[in-house]
Amino acid sequence: MQLIYTVLTGLVFGIGIALSGMMNPAKVLNFFDVMGSWDPSLAFVMAGALTVTFLGYRLVWKRDTPLFSDRFQIPTSTLIDAKLIGGSALFGIGWGIAGFCPGAAIPALGTGRWEVALFLCAVVGGFFLRRLLSNLPLKATS
Amino acid sequence: METAFTPLMSFGGGALVGLAVVLLMLGLGRILGATGILSGAVFVTSRQEATWRVALIAGMLIAPGAIFVVTGTMPEISVPSSPIMIVVGGLIVGLGASLGSGCTSGHGICGLSRLSLRSIVAVPTFMATAAITVYLIRHAFGG
Known about the structure:
Radius of gyration of chain B: 17 Å
Order of helices and strands of chain B: HHHHHH
Oligomer: heterodimer
Number of helices of chain B: 6
Order of helices and strands of chain A: HHHHHH
Largest interface: A-B, 114 and 114 residues
Distance between the termini of chain B: 10 Å
Helix content of chain B: over 70%
Radius of gyration of chain A: 18 Å
Structural class of chain A: mainly alpha
Number of domains of chain B: 1
Shape of chain A: globular
Helix content of chain A: 55-70%
Number of helices of chain A: 6
């Protein structure tokens, strides 16, 4: 039951991403191209997602526990450090170069496009790179 | 290349994305961050931790097919970036999103909805660097 629920949740996410236009790098890159062929659509994706999530999260948290688990697992850190800012800055640079972000690329892989597969392989490569870096002695925190 | 401005479709699609984010919190009590979900499915710590992530990814993967069955067309994907840019961009996305503990879904939707201080810092940071990167690629060098 829990497994079916989770698959359906993924399906809703993927359909939302596809309808919103987030799956299309041309559209995503045009959102950032304010000085050129600007397409403000993605602001509406964020507005739709944030409206539902902001209200929905607060309704869900009125419950003591989730349906299939004994607790809500929510990040509690408030640490603003170089890793957060530098990592986020890098993420934006990569997003601007490729036009895909992970949440758009995973459902997009379902179209069978090779560009999406190439991007996701590179993302996983980036995860490995981050693990290599954090094993170096010069690491700050991890 | 111009793309059509689609405010209603984008808002509706975004609302569905938000619904999925809320459903995952309701069902499993988890944040729906694509970076954490992908990395948790690749670097398996326990069967339980991997299973829900793989199930969620499986659901996402069937979405384009479901849309094709209903509408008769696949979602549009046009990729302006060259294969080299896709690989370089992907590596930087993977490195950056794991260092920064999140991407558009984790920080942008879940984190901002929780009013998380880290996400309030992360989102403008990556939005700004993405915009600067697109500006440099399209208008400063080439384009």
